[in-house]
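Q&A log
Question type: sequence-to-structure
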Amino acid sequence: MLTSLKQVKKGFTIIELLIVIAIIVILAGLVLTNIQGAQAQARDSARIQNIGSIRTQLEVYHNDNNAYPQTFTASDINAEEDALEDPRGSDSIEILAAVADEAAAETAVTGAVTDDTDGTAAYAYAAYPTGCTNDCTGYVLGTYTEQAQDDGNNYVIEIGLANE
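Response status: OK
Response body:
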């Protein structure tokens, strides 16, 4: 009687298991990257919406007072408290000293808006001209964005309507 020396193998080889694990790791990495990108985009949208809300309230203030404030809080401009809150929880806007003109204000604001992950203000505001208090003629408002905008910058700037 002939007996077979060949044994039947059951299960997977180590190579097959490693290939499957590698494929799973690659797919998980792709999914996590897409989720993080979507979260950053959502935070950027919230920041842009917040400065739009602040801008609207500053324009209402201008209509009522015929000038922009040099400094303000949410209650000063009748804005919702969370309008000044960054999507990551930072609750601040950096009010810069009044500057000479719109170009100087834009330079100051773009220099001030920084990555919100370091705990600094995600929003910045600069009024002008120099020395104004509650009689400013214009302002620039800005926010940091995690993703580059259409113009290639990682920030968004809003300028007072009285200046456009």
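Response note: The radius of gyration is 27 Å.
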